[in-house]
Every structure is written in structure tokens, then in C-alpha cells.
Amino acid sequence: MIELKNVCKTFKVAKRNAGFGEAVKSLFCRDYTYVQALNDVSFTVNDGEMVGYIGPNGAGKSSTVKIMSGILTPDSGECIINGRTPWKDRVDHVRDIGVVFGQRSQLWWDVPVIDSFELIRDIYKVSREDYKKSLSSLTELLNLSEILKTPARQLSLGQRMRCEIAASLLHNPKILFLDEPTIGLDASSKIAVREFIKSINKQNKTTVILTTHDMQDIEALTDRILLIGKGRILLDGTLAELKKRHSAFKTITVDYTGEKLPACENYKVTKDGDGRGEIIIDTRVITASQAISFISDHVEIKDISVTGETIDETVVSLYKEFAI
Amino acid sequence: MKLYFKYVGMLLRSQMQYKASFFMTAVGQFLISFTTFLSMVFMFSRFNSVKGFIFSEILICFSVVLMAFSITECFFRGFDVFPRLIKSGELDRILVRPRNEMFQVLASDMDLSRIGRLLQAVVMLIYAFITCDIHWTGYKIITVVLMILGGVAVFTGLFVLFAAFSFFTIEGLEFMNIFTDGSREFGKYPVSIYGEGMLKFYTFVVPIALFQYYPFLYLIGKSENMWYMLLPLLGFAFIIPCYAFFRYGLRKYKSTGS
């Protein structure tokens, strides 16, 4: 169980203009600006949940994850994870969590991956049997058997990310924080990583909190999303709700033989000519099938496709709505 | 402790990936200190003593400081490169592991190529012991050991202090080198030769005189005060405020964006 209550965090940022003169000046006196990274953030995540944490760059996602993993101390507010405050009981707390920073490695660069795993086993004091068990299941699930003996520096990004995820799960944590786990991965690696995350969430009941910019991650993995912007939680709900709210509009593209698409007060023709047209409908006024049957009454349809707003577009319109 | 050796084993394996670089650095380290040694030899061939200390005595002083410094640099290098740990975000990684953060910083880096410098210090110390006319007793041998240990403690404290400063600013840290490298350079000669003010500074502010000057006086027989023998132990107390400051910095740690 993760509980955040009114968490605030402000960063002091030194500011200076470009140029050598300014650099010298800043040695002696500096201007600081205060950036409110988190402003009264509260939410609760239950055991076994999988939550997508989204928001534009600089919204405060990573800061929240860092507070929850005990790296940062907030200025005020409470954060209780499994009955412990992360930055106070750091050592006990981190034994129960796994953290993957997509942009940083936790493997030792110059030695084979398996050596890193061994050392991590010692750091977390995992018993031999438990280690063997989790290593073999991770090897199988993430398809690691061929790369375990390769030094980390020679791995491709996708291979490395699979090893990173395995490394943070060797001690079988109750909570897994993933900070942009699919960043820079190719399509098949992304799918492999997603499948894996899904399966450990199901099998081990691991709570997963995932920050990402890749909406397909969210779509494939999480039911619940938290939207953060300018340091505030703006939205906390299921993906379906979000979609319902923002994807009422659908676009129908029609190839037809005939004069012209029929006009109707329930939809809007945005493009038409040379036997091809585009219509935007509001599903709260008219359903797609109603619209199609109305069109087919007037012209002969050769080909038709209905597309909704993609989740990326939904998120962009969300960002716009909240002006973040 | 077992874990520390595992970390070390890991570092060794990593460093041995670049064998040529390792040996060249080690040889380089040796040569650098050797030139310092030579410059002292030439200087003393013209002036027989500095403020009443003869060459072999000064050599003891120098080699003890050099030895303490290179041991510290070898094993406590994690603190020396601490700004790098912050910049690269490696500290975040350290903080999400269930072990003491000081231990992990300590174990995160180790520079065995400093062995070159250490070797130079050993050679000089032996040479100094042969040429000087110290009347050896059990106490004096303990004094030498304590001097080296105390030196490691004081330099470690300075390194920790240096690391703690990097929580507040990453820029301008070169300033701190006045205390670490500066102390090593000043430590070549018994600090009293720089005058009364410097002696006070190096006793009460940056306590290198505790392991380098006072016990040294006892060692070469310039002082009969037995307490001087134990003064290096006070050097260990110096670590405490440095550690406290480090902990304070850690609470203010800002991490880097990603």
C-alpha cells in the first residue's frame, strides 16, 4: 500500500545568463529561482495495482518516484509505503522495492551481467535457493540465457533493459517502480518488456508504478492512470474513463461512387471530392453505424474506415485542457 | 566486510579489462612522486637542514604523509570522485540499495593504480629509516604505525568533507583541493617550518599536524612527550564532524532530473 499525502517539494535552481562574463559573475553572486516540482500531491495505490503515471516533461513524475523510493526528502507532506516512510527507513524500505531508471544503468559496466547479478544478490542478502529460483524464472521470461555472460557494455539497449529489469527483480520486491522502461527500445523489445511486466504483476501480485511517455505502454499495461502536471495531480482514473471523455469524436473516411456525400445536421463533412470524403461524427449525437447507413442510403460505398482519437491525441488534448 | 571484498573483486575485474592503462597509470604515479623526491634530494645537497630538521628526518615526514594519502586515495576514492557519482546519477542507484550509503560510496570505487605512489612512499620510508639515526624502541615503531593510520583517518575525513560539499555545489569544488592535495603538499615538511600560524591552522582546523608533526617530534627524539605518540588517534575524531556534515548534505540531496 502506497499512500502520499500533501507532498510538496521545491528545488532551488541557480540561474545565470549565457556568456563568460556571466559565468564569472555567478561565482560571486547568484540568482536563484525556486521551482515547485511537487505541489500538494496525494494519492493511494493498493497492493497488486498497476498504475501509469503520466505527464509532460518536467511535470514532477521522476521527483515523485524518487520520493517514493527514498532518494529525495520532500519539503512537507507524508508518504507511507507498506507502513514505512521511505527517507527515514531507507534501508528497510528499499529491500521491498525494485527501481528501474530507464536512462541509468545498475549493472557494472565492464563485467558479465551474471557477475552483476551475483553482487546484487549479496547486496540484497537473497538466499541461494531464492536467487536460483528467481534467476531461472527471469532468465526464461526475459529470454536472457544467451546474454548473461556478456559484459554489460556490449549489450544492445534492448538487451540491457531486459537485464536491468531482471536485476531489479532478483530480490522479489513487493513494489516495482519503472521510470520510462521502454525509452529507446525497438518495437519487439517494447512488446517483450510489456508482456513481462504484465505477467509479474499477475503472477507475483507485484505493485507496479510506471512512468512513461509512450502511451502504448499505458494502453497495454495499466488500468489506472495518474496525470500530473506542474506538480499537481490533475486526474486519477481509469483509462476507459479517460477515453470516453475525450474520444467522443470519430472520423469516418469513405471511398464511394456517386455525386457527393450527403449533408446531415448530425455530422460534419470535412473533406469531399473525387470519390473520397471525410466525416467527423460526435458519438454522443449519432453512432457510427447510424451515420454509415445514412451515407449508404445516398451513395454507394466502396471502402470505409472509422478511426477514433488515438490515445496520444487524447493525452495531448488533456495536456491542453489543463494548460500544462 | 565480505561484501566489501566482493565489490573490490568486481572493481579488480573491471580494471583488469584495461591492463595496459592500469600499469601505465601505476608507473606514472610512481614517477611523479619520484621527481618530488629527487627535488628534495637536490635541495638538501645544497642546504643540509631546514629549520633544524635533517634530510632523512624530513623524508620520514614526507613518506608518512605520502603513504597515508595514497592509501586513502586507493581505498576511499569513492569520496574523491563523489561529484561524479552525483552528476551521473549513480548516487540514486546507491540510495535504492539496502545498504549503508557510506559503505556503498566507499566500495563503489577503488583505484589500485595508486599503488605506484604507495610503493614510492614505502621505498622512501625504508631509505629514511636506514639513513637516519633514530634510536628504535617498541614505542617508536607503534608511533610510526599510528602516524600512518592517523594520516589515513584525517585524509579520509577531508575526502568525506569534500564529498559533502558536492551536495551543495558541483561547480567550484577545486577549491576543496586546497585541503586535500594541499595538505599532502604541505605535509612534505614538518608543518612548523611554515611558522606558528600555519602550525595552529594545521592543528586545530585541518588536523594534519596531529599525525605528521607532533608524533614526528617524538619519533626523532626532539620531544620526550609520550602523549605525542597517541595524538594521531585524535585524527579519527576528525571523521565524526565530517561524517555528520555528509549526512546533513544527503538530506538536502537534490538528485538530477531525468
What would you say about this model in short?
The complex is a heterodimer of chains A (324) and B (258). Chain A is α/β, with parallel strands linked by helices.
How would you describe this structure to a colleague?
The complex is a heterodimer of chains A (324) and B (258). Chain A is α/β, with parallel strands linked by helices. Chain A has helices spanning 20-28, 61-68, 90-95, 113-124, 128-142, 157-167, 187-203, 215-221, 239-246, 288-298, 311-321; strands at 2-15, 31-45, 50-54, 76-81, 97-101, 175-179, 207-211, 224-229, 232-238, 249-257, 267-273, 276-282, 300-308. Chain A has a six-stranded mixed sheet, with helices on both faces. Chain A is globular and about 75 Å long. Chain B is mainly alpha-helical. Chain B has one domain. The mean pLDDT of chain B is 85. Chain A binds chain B through residues 11, 27, 58, 62-63, 66, 69-73, 87, 90-92, 94-95, 97, 99, 101, 103-104, 106, 108-111, 115, 118-119, 122-125, 151, 179-180, and chain B through 2-3, 6-7, 10, 13-14, 17, 88-90, 92-93, 95-101, 172, 251, 253-255, 257-258.
What fraction, in percent, of the residue positions of chain B are helical? Answer: over 70%
Spatial shape of chain A: globular
Quote the distance from N terminus to C terminus of chain A: 29 Å
Query: Count of DSSP helices of chain A?
Result: 11
Instruction: Give the strand tally of chain B.
Output: 2
Broad structural category of chain A: alpha/beta
| Average pLDDT, all residues of chain A | 86
Largest sheet of chain A: 6 strands, mixed
Biggest interface, CB < 8 A = A-B, 37 and 27 residues
Order of SSEs of chain A: EHEEHEHEHHHEHEHEEHEEEHEH
Give the tally of structural domains of chain B.
1
Count, helices of chain B: 14
Instruction: Compute the number of strand runs of chain A.
Output: 13
Oligomerization state of this entry? Answer: heterodimer
Distance between the termini of chain B: 33 Å
Which value, in Å, is the CA radius of gyration of chain A?
25 Å
